[in-house]
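User: Fold this; tokens only.

Assistant: Input:
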Amino acid sequence: MEQFLNRYTSIIITGLFLLVAAVAVLPQFSVNVSGEFHDVSIGDLMQTYKEYFQSSAAEDLPFLGNAYAAARKLVLFFLVTSILMILLPVIEAVLALVLRRDGFLLPSALGILVNTSLKVIVVSRINSLGTTAKDVLELFGGGDPVGDTLVRANPGPLTMWILLHILVIAVIALYLIRCREGGINESFMEESSAQRQERTIGTGREFFGEIAEIRGGRQGRSYPMEPDTAVTIGGARDDVIRLNRGGAASLCQISYAEGTQEYRIRPRQTRSVFLRSGQPLGKARTYSLPRGTEIMIGDSVNRFILT
């Protein structure tokens, strides 16, 4: 489950936000036309605005009377908010998909906040339309409304919208819980370091450096280094350590200096190597890191410790 969350959380969030956008395409409210409620889609809003408010003769429509300005603002409000409720989740989905490391968390949280605000505003506006003049609502179908309810929010899209955002929150919460419980896994780092030291002493093997994967597709695996040999990590075919999400390029090169007992790491791509704090290491520069340093390569899913 943890590896699944590590690899696919941003993809899951992307899919859920795209579904939010799809739900926003559905008719969000219905109007009372002669006692029957008829859905008003975004296409209806566009057509209404074009027919009645982009025509020079619109103000002369007899049934509008003095309600022209109010009707224009009402239709424009629903049209703009409908477009935003479709467009913003798509932007959030793209951000969640393309941002590496834990970057998808911020747009996801902001997306939930923005969408919640928009939905509250829209539903509040719909609920307030009980006091709106009936001739304004005739824009959406004609005929005198029967009963006190002139317009109402459609429960289907509203329910789906709520459920999808609950799923987004649940996925993010589960991801954060799993990261807090076992993402960095300090006990594994300490235990594996002691075991490796004991194994090295027991076999009489000289130490030339060793890289341990503490999080990722091969979590728990160690890569002993050979003398005077650099290890490359990434998605290239000839990389010694290949990452599941490394792409097609080699991301960095690591070597071990016996004299100073330090690791030399040289990133080959921009923002391809990060320290545990999240600080990126610059491309094509060589850094000296002490033993025990934890690094992230590609994104936060792939974490290694230089033992």
